C-alpha cells in the first residue's frame, strides 16, 4: 500500500460482500436477489474484502495502543496484521508530532493530549500549538471546518453564480483562512440557511462543523489550554494562523518544481492542487496542505495554504534543516535519523504574499 495517501477508487465487491448483500432480500421473508453482472464476473471477484486495518492510516490506532501501554506495536498480535510500512509510517508521524519519544514511549503532555483528541494527530498538534500562539478560537474553527466534507456547493445549472459567490469568500493566503472566513460569515449571518443558499455553501456541513468545534473546544479546555482570539484583520494575524497550521501539518509541505508540479520535501511525491483550491494555478513556490487524495486525475493536494519556507525553521526545526543559505530539506532525508534517504528539495526564499 502507498502510505499517507487517501485513494478514492471504485472497486468491485468481494464474494463475501455480495453474499451478505443478497441476505437483505430475505430479511423479512423469502426474496430474490438479482445481480447485475454475469456468473463469470462473480467468480472473478476476490473472496474477501481486505481488512480495513491493512488499507488505512494507523496513526490513531498506534497512539491508542501506546496509551494502553503496548510498547512493541510492530509485533502486536493483530487478528489481521497491517503491513509493516503502514505501522512504521504511523510511528514516524507520531514521533515527528512529538507524541512519542525516541524510545517509542508516549510523551507528556503532547502525546497524552493528542491521545485524548478525537482527530488526526496533525490536527490535534495544531490545536495544542494554538494555545502558545494565542489563536485558539480561530484554530478551533479551522479544525472544525477541516473535519467535515467540503462546504462549497456548485449546482449544475448555476455554476457561474456559485463560483462568483465562492470567490467573494476567498482569502488570498489559501484554503485554511478561506474556511475560517466562511465559518465566520456563517456565524455573522446568524447561521441562516438562506445565507447558505445565496452563497452556495452547505448548511448541513456548517452546522456539523459548529458542533465539532464545540466538542474540540471542550477537549482543549480539559487540557488546560487558554483559549484566546486573534485580531483577524491584520497581516500579522494571518501569519500567526498559518504558522499554527504549519506547526501541525509541517510533514505536509511541498514546493513547486520547474515542471509545474509540486514535490513534497519529504519523500519527493509529485502532487497537483485540487481544482477547487484557492491556490489552484497560483504558482506559489511553497505550500502546506491538509491531505493528499489519489483520484483518476492523479495525486491531488486538498486544503492548501502558501507559506514561506523560513517558517519551517520557526515551527519544525526538529524536522527540517537548512542546507546552505537558501535551501531546506527534511532532517530524516539528510541522514539525521535511521530512515533511508528518499529525496531532497530546495529553493530560494521569497515573500509569498
TrEMBL record:
One of its GO terms (molecular function) is RNA binding. Residues 331-345 have a biased composition (Basic and acidic residues). Keywords: ATP-binding, Nucleotide-binding. Pfam families: HA2_C, OB_NTP_bind, WHD_HA2. Residues 89-180 form the Helicase-associated domain. Residues 331-353 are annotated as: Disordered. This is Helicase-associated domain-containing protein. It comes from Lotharella globosa.
